[in-house]
Fold:
Amino acid sequence: MRFVSMLLLPVLAMSSLAAHAGEQDVKRLGQLLGQSNTITARFSQLTLDGSGTQLQETTGDMSVKRPGLFYWHTDAPQEQTMISDGKKVTLWDPDLEQATIKKLDERLTQTPALLLSGDVSKIEQSYDVSSKTQGEVMEFILKPKTKDTLFDSLRLSFRKGNISEMQLIDSVGQRTNILFNEVKVDKEIPESKFKFVVPKGADVIQE
Structure:
């Protein structure tokens, strides 16, 4: 299954100074993620293996609406659509004519894609967060607190306050870079965008 499906899916005590810095990073990230009710954007996605060899390159568009509504569409020839209606996540593969439907449980709400539309107050529960600023770009590094994840680190970059890039690195060094452009915030998005009707005759997998 292509990368879009990956989007579905304890440490030692630190000094008080470092802990305080981490709290400030979490607060700032929460402010940036929570400042907009909706986000729409085009994206380009590049996946490299541990040696830097290109595995896949795709483009597409995404829309998010808080809380929990998410739409992610990858353009042909590797077309897929992932939609969250706040209760379940549907992954549609038109080539296979197959819809995979998952309940939106706690584990799924912590995955990278749904982080953009989820409950920002839960970030500190799921990730250790650090940040740095370079000019007009602010970067946040998120490291999962549990081992039950498909990535070792997640970098979120914001330019002038808007999401601009996401990078995931997994346990074998595979990297996926996602660049966002044409970003628009607080644009009206119809509720129908986040509802998926399974085409007649398609295979349905309930997980």
In short: Residues 2 and 135 are 35 Å apart (CA to CA). The chain has one domain: 3-9+19-206.
